[in-house]
Amino acid sequence: MAERSVGELEDSAALAAYRQELHDFADQLNRLHISFGAPSYRDLTSRPGPSV
Question: Which pTM does this prediction carry?
Answer without folding.
Answer: 0.56
